[in-house]
Amino acid sequence: MVVAAGRGERARSGSADPKQYHLLAGRPVLEHTLRALLSADRITHVLAVIHPEHDARYEGIGISDARLLPPVHGGATRQASVLAGLKAIAPMKPDLVLIHDAARPMVTPEIVDGVIAGLADSAGTLPVVPVTDTIKRSDDGRRVALTEERSRLFAAQTPQGFRFAQIFSAHMRAERLPREFTDDAAIAEWAGLEVAFAPGSSRNIKITLPEDFERAERLMTGNIPTMETRIGTGFDVHPFTEGDAVFLGGVRIEHDRTLEGHSDADVALHALSDALFGAIGEGDIGQHFPPSDPQWKGAASRIFVEHAASLVAARGGRIVNLDLTLVCEAPKIGPHVPAMREAIAAMCGITPDRVAVKATTNERLGFIGRREGMVALASASVELPRSA
């Protein structure tokens, strides 16, 4: 059972995806984890417990293996998610169950075999590695109370293995307690079950913080600089015509004129689209959405940005940041900047703090100064896997 029902917010690094769906070496973390477990000969079935809102994300994981069961939805806590998974597989009456964190994509068949072997004479087994740091205990978080005996300390990993009937019973009873357990071995201990150690691995890391992705990438690929940064720029200009509103950055702004164009004439999103296309060497907006094609007449320009962002993702890349400058005498842009940042971030699957929107006038000079039109300039920074 792979527990993948969390939102993984601590590990986000500019990505809107929970950590289990964040790309690692070009594939979602969860896909790596599932494939790693399916590579173990002694695993007969694998079940993923996912968040109810992540069905579409999970469907994007392309694994065709008869041993991979349809996913089930988890609960509000890890403990509740594990119990949901145990209930789902109870009708199969398995002898043994291994419970693994989705955020440990580098588990090996050797670790799995060691956990299963330990269940021959123990109710539970978990992989561990010795603690190498000196551990200090504190009562107030400021001063040392004592130094722990390091030789008696071990860091717990997953998968943690159990005899199914015993851990299922323990989880059912623990559900009624007013406390939460941090792992399944702790529930087994509370239930009076003997839990033994099996060899873990320093490579079996758990992705918890943003920097863990870089470490996992290095371990998985053997490459230190696995990504490279690309920069793209975009420029667009549209004239004003009769109307009562303009679309800028995906936001409708009331105005005494409108922008003229084949689509909704969102000059901001057109410049951003070109910046993204340029960063990955994919031409410009006119090649992907020709103005001569009637299907794009009046189209929402968010379609163009979302397409550009999807091309970045398809290359195994990520958008680092977007920077947009609007040049016009009117309308006033400032009051709409927060909404524009939110809208653009949603189109690109990134957080709003990675989107900058600025505005300036042309000091009443030229066609902009005469309020005949407006200009947008954009830049996009993306990271792509380093090619050979």
TrEMBL record:
Alphabetized InterPro entries for the sequence: IspD, IspD/F, IspD/TarI, ISPD_synthase_CS, MECDP_synthase, MECDP_synthase_CS, MECDP_synthase_sf, Nucleotide-diphossugar_trans
Cofactor: a divalent metal cation
Positions of the record's site feature: Transition state stabilizer: 10, 19, 262, 361
Record region (2-C-methyl-D-erythritol 2,4-cyclodiphosphate synthase): 230-388
Enzyme Commission designation: 2.7.7.60, 4.6.1.12
Protein task: Bifunctional enzyme that catalyzes the formation of 4-diphosphocytidyl-2-C-methyl-D-erythritol from CTP and 2-C-methyl-D-erythritol 4-phosphate (MEP) (IspD), and catalyzes the conversion of 4-diphosphocytidyl-2-C-methyl-D-erythritol 2-phosphate (CDP-ME2P) to 2-C-methyl-D-erythritol 2,4-cyclodiphosphate (ME-CPP) with a corresponding release of cytidine 5-monophosphate (CMP) (IspF).
Protein's recorded name: Bifunctional enzyme IspD/IspF
Organism: Arsenicitalea aurantiaca
Gene that encodes the chain: ispDF
